[in-house]
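Practice problem: predict the structure.
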Amino acid sequence: MHIFNSNPDCKTLFPWIIKYETEGRDFTEGKEFRSQSLRFVQTIAHVVKNVYHMERLEGFLYDIGQRHIKYASRGFKPQYWDLFQDAMQAALTNRMNSLPEISNEDRERVIMIWRDIALYIIDHMKKGYYDGLNGINQFPSGIIM
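Answer:
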């Protein structure tokens, strides 16, 4: 939710959010939001699963960036990558701070690790996005998750 609170313009990327809000409904209760959230969680899970096999991740993340080119017509802006990275970091920090059983030292260490993972994810997605805008695809065969 951080991304929508910090930049409400991001909602234009998801037409169903506008529809829900126009109807006075909470978009986070809708199947579209759950579906989008699931895709996000699956991406994070794939990255974590393959953290020791980084060669499997670069093309996968790059391809996601390439696919985001089609959202430019809905208002996707390159600066949204940074907003998304900030949102991931804020969500993780809030979650870690809600766990009192974790020591401050462990909490700091986990936050730093996740910050690095988020940066890795966004950097590779950005690369795919910018290459795609220039008609370049470094992974033309596609990557299977």
